[in-house]
Amino acid sequence: MTASSTRRTAAVRSRFAAVGSIAVAGALILTGCGDQTDDSGSQSSGSKSAAPLADKLPQAIRDKGVIKVGSDIAYAPVEFKDGSGKTVGIDPDLAAAMGKQLGVTFQFENGTFDSLITGLRSKRYDIAMSAMTDTKDRQDGIDADTGKKVGEGVDFVDYFTAGVSIYTQKGKNTDIKTWSDLCGKKIVVQRGTVSEDLAKAEAKKCTGGKTIAIESFDNDQQAQTRLRAGGAAAGSSDFPVAAYAVKTSGGGNDFQLVGDQVEAAPYGIAVAKSNTQLRDALKAALDAIIANGEYDKVIKKWGVEDGAVKEAAVNGGK
Fold first, then answer.
1. Max alpha carbon distance in the chain (Å)?
2. Is 270 contained in some domain?
3. Do 46 and 149 reside in the same domain of the chain?
4. Is residue 29 part of a domain?
5. CA–CA distance, 238 with 14 (Å, rounded to integer)
6. pLDDT at position 1, please?
7. Residues 238 and 270 in one domain
8. Are the C-beta atoms of 282 and 127 separated by less than 8 Å?
9. pLDDT (tens digit, 9 = 90+) per residue, 69-126?
10. Which residues of 90-100 are buried (b: 16+ CB within 10 A; e: fewer)?
11. Domain membership flag for residue 14
């Protein structure tokens, strides 16, 4: 969903790293290190035992034992459904490790990326964790397209760094190396991401009567399908997502990365500004798993070491 957030606008997400993208299903309390999935496929993670940071959480969340997570679960390898329908990826694994520290379940609930902040604002979710780039616009509740304030804004607990990449069908459109090479061509992107914002900004720079045709989709998998069928010259996603698609789609025969990644920025866990206690508890949990090595295990598992951070930060995006 590395736009804005590099999955960065008030509704932008960017998803950097080396290669290795809503219904409440009920709380599942875990007693080990693994994750569990309920019958509907909602991801849960955490443990109520041996939770050294449980007292840092708001009492209401401690009582429920659940942190409801809004997420666009179609952004492999950050969060996606595996063959059995279980929610897996970088974010769910990090949430599982944090859940052990806090003694709660992180319950992932699927939604389109551009609706996550709204869901957080309406208290449908406690947090949004979805390769969402921490940006000043999002912190301040500013719509990047209009420059107008659309809400209170959110706070972020930053946990990863990512940039944006372009990819094409393998062996085709070899003249595309940079964003400026897209003038006169079509690109497919996910709606509400930094990729979409970059494409719009670049289209305004095109000369000679050319522009960039932009086709936006609800999720990145739809954009990939369109590109795979030859419906566009290129696609763009956060680097980990683009790299994962290049490695896995068609056994590595469908796509190729072109040019360098751009707009590197932090991914953040979004929290309502009024919920500072939850924000600070999440920061403490993230710092704890960085210190005890669980964070590095997750990062290495998914082959995204280049995007790792050394400590949690609050509102580090610009």
1. 65
2. yes
3. yes
4. no
5. 5
6. 53
7. no
8. yes
9. 999 999 999 999 999 999 999 999 999 999 999 999 999 999 999 899 999 999 999 9
10. bbbbbbbbbbb
11. no
Per-residue pLDDT tens over the stretch 203-241: 999 999 999 999 999 999 999 999 999 999 999 999 999
Supply the CATH number for residue 181's domain: 3.40.190.10
Same domain, 85 and 223: no
Cα–Cα distance measured from residue 237 to residue 131, given in angstroms and rounded to the nearest whole number: 11
What is the overall mean pLDDT for the chain?
Answer: 87
Return the structure tokens found at 191: 């709606």
Burial profile 162-190: b = 16 or more Cβ within 10 angstroms, e = fewer = bbbbbbbbeeebeebeebebbbebbbbbb
Range of the domain at 184: 163-264
Q: Are residues 156 and 284 in the same domain?
A: yes
CA distance 276 to 231: 45
Closest CA to 145 of 238, 237, 263, 9: 9
Q: 141 and 66 in one domain?
A: yes
DSSP 89-154: SHHHHHHHHHHHHHTSEEEEEE--GGGHHHHHHTTS-SEE-SS-B--HHHHHTB-TTT--B-S--E
Pair (141, 270) in one structural domain: yes
Beta bridge partners of 257: 167
pLDDT at 18 over 60: no
pLDDT for 68 beyond 80: yes
Quick one: pLDDT at residue 49? 52
- Tokens at 41, concatenated: 């496929």
Query: What pLDDT, on a 0 to 100 scale, did the predictor assign at position 315?
Result: 97
Give the pLDDT confidence of 241-292 residue by residue, as tens digits.
999 999 999 999 999 999 988 988 999 999 999 999 999 999 999 999 999 9
Is 16 contained in some domain? Answer: no
